[in-house]
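Section 3.1: Structural characterization of target chains.
Under the original work plan, the team committed to producing a structural model for every single-chain target entering the pipeline before any wet-lab resources were allocated. The record below documents one such target. The sequence was received from the expression subgroup and is listed exactly as submitted; it comprises 128 residues.
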Amino acid sequence: MKTGLKRVGKYIFLFTVSVVILVITATYFYKSYQKNRSYSLHYLGMEEKKAGDYLKAIKLLSMSIEAYPKDYVPYLTLASCFEELGNIDLAVEEYETAYKLIENSDDKIALHDLKLLKYKLRKLKKVY
């Protein structure tokens, strides 16, 4: 009887380990999917911006941010769309969000963008 209980306990342990591995793997792939979805939506938003359809670009960029809010780049593109439409208050708000995300980054490109963003924010706040 004891060997039967040991065997059941062993199977329960193996099942539990398998479930934990499955959850970790699914979480990893979901996060990867969200990043890729965000990048794709950002690209489409940039294409719409280039074409001059700022409202469609704003919708796509907002979806990009919703998919992966930790990336600062869609915030910059979204802010520039608002700026093109003359909505400086929303542009500044998005630039400031990007600024906060960049400040917490150790990415060298992001830190370079931070310097440019500081200048841009100063300029926008003075003009408007």
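The chain has a mean pLDDT of 84.
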